[in-house]
Amino acid sequence: MMDVDPILDVRDLRVTFRTEEGTIRAVDGIDLTVNGDETVALVGESGCGKSVASLALARLVAGPGLKITGGVRLAGRDLPGLSDRELRRLRGATISYIFQDPMASLNPVKPVGAQIGEAIRLHRKVSDIDSEVVRLMKLVGLPDPETRRKAYPHQFSGGMQQRVMIAMALACCPKVLVADEPTTALDVTIQAQIFSLLAALRAELKMAVLLITHNLGLVAQNAQRVYVMYSGRIMESGSCEAVLRQSAHPYTRGLLAAVPRLRHSQERMTGIEGTVPHPAHLPSGCRFHPRCPLAEERCRIVEPEMQTVGEGHQTRCHCWKQLM
User: Are 90 and 150 in contact (CB under 8 A)?
Assistant: First the structure.
């Protein structure tokens, strides 16, 4: 069941950049909701716009000729009407981010404890910041935090660096945590540990998680609902069970077919032919039609609207009945 008032409600979000090649429509009118007690995944290939969309929620995206429009309601507040100062108060405190590459995100010349403490100092009134830093490091499973808070990022493994990033993101008890490819550079064992940690923290802290990824295997294991994004548009959405078990869009089917299956090691892994189109030169009609095995003449001319195919399950496809 959907909450009456989701913690995050995004309506017709659009992000464009004006460049020499033309107007780039990185995010082109997406709707998305996240309830206060769930993990929601936003998935798609590299270049589909999912990271730009997540950054645009808190106005963290920058670029030439940037324009962001649409509605973003977070914890009962409309973000588009807020000043820069009010947005800074929300970032970290109400919505927080775990970025893709911890080594690139952490300051190499500051101890990790000082970096975690900086977020606390900016947003909370805590008498003993060092003790709070130690508590957060313990919370995310970092060993010997009393000593290691004085260490530098290069003295941690990739998995431990990601735990530092999570501690920083949780420093101010956010209501929404945006995890943008949080395990990209980590091996599968560490990936499992990080996602297990995020699930435990979500339950303990009553926090919503927006997971940005291209990995549908991770989505199946960790999310309750999923939005599939392609070329700035949401192509399919619904519960993970509905979308992953009975996909109603050829793009989702293609992503699923590209997931390796250990039980069928002799099967050849199939990919999706072609590439995501350049956002300044989008095709007419359905944006996926140049790569779609089901494309018809109308797909090349008319862009499909979102259609309901089941309870809470929607797709943007003219030919969805052929898949059901």
Answer: no
- Retrieve residue 157's tokens: 């493994």
Tokens representing 262? 């250990």
Q: What is the DSSP string of 93-117?
A: TTEEEE-S-HHHHS-TTS-HHHHHH
- So what's the pLDDT on residue 218? 85
Going from the C-alpha of 236 to that of each of 56, 289, 308, the distances in angstroms are 21, 15, 10
Contacts of 269 (CB under 8 A, 6+ apart): 257, 258, 260
What CA–CA distances, in Å, run from 120 to 40, 101, 148, 168, 173?
Answer: 26, 22, 18, 9, 10
Mean pLDDT of the region 283-293: 95
Beta bridge mates, 234: 229
Q: 25-74, pLDDT tens digit by residue? A: 999 999 999 998 899 999 999 889 999 999 999 999 988 899 999 999 99
Examine the pLDDT at 2 and tell me if it is beyond 60.
no
CB 41 within 8 A of CB 30: no
Residues 6+ apart with CB under 8 A from 312: 2, 225, 238, 239, 242
CA dihedral 67, 71, 76, 80 (to 10 degrees): 30
Number of other CB atoms surrounding residue 61 within 10 Å: 18
∠ CA 21-63-274 to the nearest 5 degrees?
A: 50
Amino acid occupying residue 145 = P
Domain boundaries, the chain: 8-94+176-261+269-323, 105-173
Interval 179-206: pLDDT, tens: 998 877 677 777 888 888 888 888 888 8
The residue type found at 97 is: Y
Reference 166, options 91, 93, 99, 118; nearest CA is 99
User: How far apart (Å, rounded) are the C-alpha atoms in residues 79 and 88?
Assistant: 11
Take residue 36 and report the two structure tokens written for it.
């206060």
CATH code of the domain made up of 8-94+176-261+269-323? 3.40.50.300
